[in-house]
Structure formats: structure tokens, C-alpha cells
Design brief:
The structure is a homodimer. By secondary structure, chain A is α/β, with parallel strands linked by helices. The first copy, chain A, has helices at 17-20, 28-39, 53-66, 84-92, 100-110, 119-122, 156-166, 187-200, 228-245; strands at 9-15, 42-49, 69-73, 96-98, 126-128, 132-134, 143-146, 149-152, 177-183, 205-213, 216-225, 248-252. The first copy, chain A, has two domains: 3-169, 3-Layer(aba) Sandwich (Molybdenum Cofactor Biosythetic Enzyme, Chain A), CATH 3.40.980.10; 177-252, Alpha-Beta Plaits (2-Layer Sandwich). In chain A, α3 crosses α4 (84-92) and α8 (187-200) runs antiparallel to α9. At the A-B interface, α1, α2, β2, α6 and α8 of A face α1, α2, β2, α6 and α8 of B.
Chain lengths: 253, 253
């Protein structure tokens, strides 16, 4: 197996009480899931945890050993409840230090601005010792990388800009391709056919997702594989079977 | 401390490859977070994991020991990729059996329907041995409860109906109250005042959430506590301080 074909796996840790209290609807999981999938990095697991240093440390340390990359979102601002940076430093047993490159970025940004680079904002120039910075073209205060842990902002627009900065540097792996159809037949009536096709094409991941349209049950079927030939063969077989038992509703790409 | 004042903690496990591939935007986390918070049950942690038996078993077994309740969503339909029920049975070391009450519910539902209670649909009448059923007023196939693990559907409308069925039976605890204001001042300019207030009112959780409105930075401040008197005192002090350093933007309830 060549290096291009290896699976690269990642996890995401969403940090913030506001997600768990329901005050804020997370928008980062779905964005990162789509982006990582498109790049050829599997998002294998997501955790949403509270702004609690022990919880951040234990989640980071548990996941960074198991996955190629761990992304975190949230908790890197200037206020007392932003404790992600200190927690990452603690997880790696590194000092939490003023990063001179980050300080320079903030000095340049606030120089001539009506806002001052005060002590609170200077917190955003602190990172674990030896961290690499992640560019933030929007509000400047950078994210950072320590080993395989990539620390991003929680505000969706800033998180996206940071992710775009870091994406070209990521090692990518086997890209998963997918083909989908939707049929106006309930899952219960196609389940046994699906099971047969899944058993035959065991390297293809076949997902079955029920929906309701105009009061009728339908099912979206998604086939996923890194091998285009096998994917198309399995898809052809699925189409033929669906033709026999269902009104074909929509073929998606 | 009386029993009413105890904190009741819970975790949520979102099961499904479609969430992690980005195909589906999860809608259950935010709904459950709001409902649980309103009931007086803290949502302490959320995990999104793949349709993988070992991962489901290990997540369930890790979380059910640490929290009063564990909710799961997804993976209880009739198709081959619905493996939540078998996984829960395995996590508890219980047999995976035909539940006669669930079978009766499905027989009544499909009797006279154009759909048949075939082998695939009968899978939805299987549960871990000794499970209690959770009523599903929408599509009938029930959720279930084993000890402190509550297994719900993934389709948001069905999940919500199941949660409403089970909510009145849940043990609830200390209810968290909140008060919020939004100010048109960046976090960096109010951070030191917030730190002082947080240190003084250490039983109040003060969250600070930046936003951008019409190109200007603002901050939403959320104070949360189970003690209404302390919450109001901390809030008064926050208001007085914000009056001095910021244009008050909006007071929310």
C-alpha cells in the first residue's frame, strides 16, 4: 500500500459551556467534517466538553495518541473563561509563554487602532512553548499547533479562516468518494436487499438514512469507498435492485 | 444539601457516520442541551462517533459510569448500519432479544397498513434483555432504556417525540438560572473587569462570547447560577461596571 492510500484520521474537540447549555448552536462540526472529508482526512470522533482544564487536558491527551490530528475549537480569546491555551500547554507538559511572533502580530494590528493591546489582549499572544502559529486573517490573534494538535478559534468565521490557513499543510490520505440515491420506499422494505449488497461489497460503506417527504417515507442511500471502480460496481448493483422494488426518486452525485 | 439541590449530570452520544462525514448536520445536540438545561439536568459532555460496535460499547461503558444519564441518538432503524441496539446489549453484557411489548406495538401499527412487519422491521422490536421501552408516537418503533442509558432515534422529529415521552420520568437536579447582556465593546476591553467580578462571585459561571455586528465587535455576557440571589447581585455589579466602560447594548432575560 502506497503512502497516498493510507487513511489519515482526526478528532475534533469542541470546547465551550455555551454549546453544552444549548445557548449556542455549534456550526464548526459540520464545516470541519465536510472540509476534512474533501481533503482526504477522516473525522473519526468529536467531543464537546466544558471550559474545564482537567477535561480539556484529559480529552486532548486521550485523543492525540489515537489520531493523526486533533483539532480544537473555542476558548482562545482574551477573557477569564478562555482556558484552552493553558490547558494545551498542561496537556503537553510545556510552559505557557509569551510568543514573540504572536506579540508582534498583535502589536502591528493594534498600532494606530482605537483599541489598545492591553494585558487582556496580550493573553492572546501566549501559547505553549514551541508552538507554531496559525494565521488568522480576520481578527489577527493566531491559532497554534503543538505536535499533532491544531488549536482554532470558536467563532465560525475566524475558525474557517484559520482552517484555510492550515489546510494546505496537512498530511492527507485516502480520499473517500461517494454516490447516493434517494428512493421513495421506507427503510424496512429495502433493508434485506441492502444487507445482501453490503455483504457482497464489504469494502463499500453503505449508509441508509430515512426521511419523510409529503407524508411518505423515503430513504437516502449513500455508498462510500476510496476505490472508484468498486464504488461504481456496487452502485450499479444497488440501482438495479432498487429499480425492482422502488420508484427511483433522485440520483445524486 | 437537600436532594433537590444535587447536580444531575448527563452525557450524549451521537451515533452515525453521516454526522462525521459532514453529510448530515446534527440537530439533536442543541435541542437536547436546551431541554436538559431547562429540566435541571446538566449536559456535561457530548461525543459523536461512527457506526462501529467497539466504539459504541467503549463510549457507553466509559460514560455511563461517570454520569447520571447517558443519552444516545441514532442507529436504531431496520437496516444493516443500525447497530446501536446490539452494541448497547454488548456494553451491558445482556442478551439482544425480541421484546414482546415492542413486537405488539409494531404488529398493531403494521396491521392493515400497506407496509408489512417483515424481518427487517422486526429488528426494531429487538432490545437488550430487560430494557424498558420509550414511546415513539410518530413512527411507533420504540426507543429503550437500560439502567441509566436512554436510547433514542436519530431523526430529529422522532428523537424529540421520544425525549418528550421520557422527560417526565427523569430525575432532575439543581436548575441553572441565567442572565445576559450584550455590550458593543470588544472582549479585550472588558476582560479585566470580568476577571475581577468572576473572582468575587466564584459560584457564578460568567461566560463571555464575542460577536460582530455592523462591522463592530461586541460581547455577550452570560451569568449562570442555581442561586437567584447571588445571580442577581453579580448581575447588578456587572451592569454597573459595564455602564462605566461600554455602551449598553441589550439586556436579555
Amino acid at each position: 500500500m502506497s503512502e497516498e492510500q493510507a487513511i489519515v484520521r482526526s478528532a475534533l474537540i469542541i470546547i465551550g459551556n455555551e454549546i453544552l447549555s444549548g445557548r449556542t448552536q455549534d456550526a464548526n462540526l459540520n464545516y470541519l467534517a465536510k472540509q476534512l472529508t474533501a481533503l482526504g482526512i477522516q473525522l473519526s470522533e468529536v467531543r464537546a466538553i466544558r471550559d474545564d482544564m482537567e477535561e480539556i487536558v484529559s480529552s486532548v491527551n486521550s485523543l492525540r495518541k489515537r489520531y493523526d490530528y486533533v483539532f480544537t475549537t473555542g476558548g482562545i480569546g482574551p477573557t477569564h473563561d478562555d482556558i484552552t491555551c493553558e490547558s494545551i500547554a498542561k496537556a503537553f507538559g510545556r510552559k505557557y509563554v509569551l510568543n514573540l511572533k504572536a506579540k508582534k502580530i498583535l502589536e502591528d494590528y493594534y498600532d494606530g487602532s482605537s483599541n489598545k493591546l492591553n494585558e487582556a489582549r496580550l493573553r492572546m499572544a501566549h501559547t505553549p512553548e514551541g508552538a507554531l502559529l496559525v494565521d488568522n486573517p480576520i481578527s489577527k490573534a493566531p491559532g497554534f499547533i503543538v505536535e499533532n494538535v491544531i488549536v482554532l478559534a470558536g467563532i465560525p468565521a475566524v475558525m474557517r479562516a484559520m482552517f484555510e490557513s492550515v489546510a494546505p499543510t496537512l498530511r492527507t490520505g485516502r480520499r473517500i468518494l461517494s454516490k447516493s440515491i434517494s428512493v421513495m420506499t421506507g427503510e424496512g422494505d429495502i433493508a434485506s436487499v441492502l444487507t445482501d449488497i453490503q455483504l457482497k461489497w464489504d469494502s463499500v460503506e453503505i449508509g441508509s438514512y430515512p426521511f419523510v417527504k409529503d407524508g411518505n417515507y423515503g430513504t437516502s442511500l449513500v455508498l462510500r469507498s476510496s476505490n472508484i471502480k468498486i464504488l461504481e460496481l456496487a452502485y450499479e448493483e444497488l440501482l438495479q435492485n432498487m429499480d425492482q422494488i422502488s420508484v427511483l426518486y433522485e440520483v445524486e452525485d
